[in-house]
From TrEMBL, chain A:
InterPro entries: NIF_FeS_clus_asmbl_NifU-like, NIF_FeS_clus_asmbl_NifU_N. One of its GO terms (molecular function) is iron-sulfur cluster binding. The gene is iscU_1. One of its GO terms (biological process) is iron-sulfur cluster assembly. Residues 5-126 form the NIF system FeS cluster assembly NifU N-terminal domain. It comes from Neomoorella glycerini. This is Iron-sulfur cluster assembly scaffold protein IscU. Gene3D superfamilies: 3.90.1010.10. It holds the Pfam family NifU_N.
From TrEMBL, chains B, C:
[2Fe-2S] cluster binds at residue 326. It is found in: Cytoplasm. It comes from the Bacteria. GO terms for biological process: [2Fe-2S] cluster assembly; amino acid metabolic process. Its main location: cytoplasm. It catalyses: (sulfur carrier)-H + L-cysteine = (sulfur carrier)-SH + L-alanine. Its cofactor is pyridoxal 5'-phosphate. Keywords: 2Fe-2S, Cytoplasm, Iron, Iron-sulfur, Metal-binding, Pyridoxal phosphate, Transferase. The active site is at 326 (cysteine persulfide intermediate). Homodimer. Forms a heterotetramer with IscU, interacts with other sulfur acceptors. It comes from Neomoorella glycerini. GO terms for molecular function: 2 iron, 2 sulfur cluster binding; cysteine desulfurase activity; metal ion binding; pyridoxal phosphate binding. This is Cysteine desulfurase IscS.
Amino acid sequence: MSRVYSEKVMDHFTNPRNVGEIENASGVGEVGNPVCGDIMRLYIQVEDGIIKDVKFKTFGCGAAIATSSMVTEMVKGKTIEEALQITNKAVAEALDGLPAQKMHCSNLAADALHKAIEDFQNKSKKAS
Amino acid sequence: MRRVYLDHSATTPVRPEVLDAMLPFLKDEAFGNPSTIYSYGREAKKALDEARAKVASLIGARPEEIFFTSGGTEADNLALIGTAAANEKKGRHIITSSIEHHAVLHTAQYLMRHGFKVTFLPVTPEGLVRVEDVEEAITDETILISVMHVNNEVGTIQPIKEIGHLARERGIIFHTDAVQSVGKIPVNVDELNVDLLSASSHKIYGPKGVGCLYIRKGTRINPILHGGAQERKRRPGTENMPGIIGFGRAAELAGQELPAEMERLQALRDKLIDGIMSRIEDVQLNGDREKRVATNANFSFRYVEGESLLLSLDMKGICASSGSACTSGSLDPSHVLLAMGIPHEVAHGSVRMTLGRDNTEADIDYVLEVMPEIVARLRSMSPLYNR
Amino acid sequence: MRRVYLDHSATTPVRPEVLDAMLPFLKDEAFGNPSTIYSYGREAKKALDEARAKVASLIGARPEEIFFTSGGTEADNLALIGTAAANEKKGRHIITSSIEHHAVLHTAQYLMRHGFKVTFLPVTPEGLVRVEDVEEAITDETILISVMHVNNEVGTIQPIKEIGHLARERGIIFHTDAVQSVGKIPVNVDELNVDLLSASSHKIYGPKGVGCLYIRKGTRINPILHGGAQERKRRPGTENMPGIIGFGRAAELAGQELPAEMERLQALRDKLIDGIMSRIEDVQLNGDREKRVATNANFSFRYVEGESLLLSLDMKGICASSGSACTSGSLDPSHVLLAMGIPHEVAHGSVRMTLGRDNTEADIDYVLEVMPEIVARLRSMSPLYNR
Ligand SMILES: Cc1ncc(COP(=O)(O)O)c(C=O)c1O
Ligand SMILES: Cc1ncc(COP(=O)(O)O)c(C=O)c1O
Ligand code: FES
Ligand code: FES
């Protein structure tokens, strides 16, 4: 596989980190890739402004699954502010790159994260 | 790790017997140009004619009706563009189906941009063209009907004979893309009532880069490439001798083995289909159960995306292919599955497995063993699945 | 009997090193389809890219500017028809020469039947296109100039660099058919100022049925075949893997050996030319003596007909070719010789001998030994000859 996808991509595809759901999550973000019809849902658990836990579920190609897994690793333990700095490009780079025609897949991961944070922030506003 | 190749509709390996036949033409024993008159050239010419006769014999044609091309794609282009150019004074309407290979579909679209009207026939949910639809689509302007014999994705066998009958009655030239049927089911140009038929070598254990168009004697068609007088002025360029010789030998062997191999593969295919359907939930077979080439199985696994499935299969040594947009590099999932009315998300989770000479019952057992786990794992990651 | 092959411009045998490179792709080791994602397919993709880089390197191009075709003929068709189609809004005038290969000539004639104006430039008696003639022929409507690099019959090397310079100044796309120069003389697309360049594998000890078109980045050109997305959507069809791999290896070897081989063959050629001219009367060398590829000799023997000469040579084990009408199957003798102003009856007695890797000095000695007798015998039968 390692020739279309980097070893890191294959590692995250084969052993995805943080698959699953969080009940009563602080925030949930879901994005669909209109290009290929894939879907990613990301759950975050925030405590004291820090992302304590994160889980994902993804319906998509190898790149979509790997970027989902990677973004969860990158974000765990980060503050909301730090998490907001994570870009799609950074996720792709952390995976040692993606094939050109697969770059659009990496757009799922950071977008889902940002949506989850947005959801968390909206919920906190309502609560306060 | 076990390696199981289940993508024979994409391409097949060259058989050893075929390579043996090609080798003299890849050495300085027999490298002549068949258009030259000295001895090397004459030997080449003779070998070329023999290969032509072998390919002709596989499809019940006469040798002089076989025109070698660089593959199935060029044969399809020649059939459509060549016929359109030679008959445009008679009319500018072409009928084809919405599930053709891109070599036909994109060529038809090219002709549309050049003033031809094209009807793309719908198909049934099983992926079959209806003869009545063809009949209704015919107008006084219709000069060509092109419907594929066996579909490359879902393996459906189209009613070519009946469509051919209709075309003949109405005096319309009839082409069939038989790239996926030749060598896999009996093909006879007279029984099928076709005027033009495309075939490709690398789908029947011959080399890549060679194919042919059968042109029934008397069919009006122009060349699409221009140059030397090769292939009786219908296809210029120094002949691909090793390729053509290999194609000839592959055709000969395919003809000899067809009845037995068809039976054997059909049994394997049925075992695969029944095994998958009984072991895994939420899966559907795409394409007709009966009117189906012996080598094809195509499934949609709900809640699973095709490329992930292919990657997982590859890690287990199994090669298959998918109609998912993520695999093809194009933006939409398989146009064939969509034309059959299969929703985007279901088409997205489709996998094609196509059997061939090298597959054994043990291969199928292996696939049936690993497939349930793979699907289960991917479903456990899927936000769409909740059981 | 000694066998001396002197028709290397018609075709060449595949070198053993080239066959070795091809073999894995003709066995089930590496038969994948480079468009598929599983392991077999990825191996194929890598090999394809390597071959592309090798061919690119031989002509000083970038790999992504090489588009594999089924041969020189298709490359020429793609260059002319593809450019015409993509640029017809800008103008409908094309300039080419009257000594092009049929792959260019007949394609230009096809375009004439479809509303393009084509200027066929004359040549000097030595078979050279004059740069001034190109300049004069250019109009505001000119979208393409196509002049071959080395002529296949008389071996003349055309002033491509100068024509290319002119074309660039005027913003006109410039194509050269380099089928007979690539691998025989240094070819560099940047030095030559060309936008499009055709090459063919079987002229450089690669397999038949594969070639390429170099397309300079940014050149407007449409595909002429329609189908899958191979070759970055410019040339559809499952790639001819063994052919392409062989072409790549042949290009690599040709590049390595070019300087030494060119010197060696030039010496043999000069020996052949001087030997024939001094041993036989009433013979002329066709084509320029200096601006001539190292591999080509072309003579006209007065009072002798070309096909008879070829047959006589063949009986002595020597393979050559002829510009005689009797050989070509067409009614007229070589259009190249006629365009050079050579009278019919002289053109009729022409023989082309083209040298290659396998030729030795002993081969030339042998030819020089048998040729005088053969010519004398045929002349003794000729009613035109009376000495
Ligand atoms: C139905 C059908 N038509 C045409 C083609 C094109 O053939 P080739 O790859 O030889 O150009 C294929 C295979 O790719 C096919 O399956
Ligand atoms: C100058 C020239 N152009 C084009 C061609 C055609 O090449 P191919 O035989 O590969 O189609 C040839 C050889 O036949 C040639 O000599
Ligand atoms: S998410 Fe569909 S291509 Fe990757
Ligand atoms: S005399 Fe025989 S073809 Fe010329």
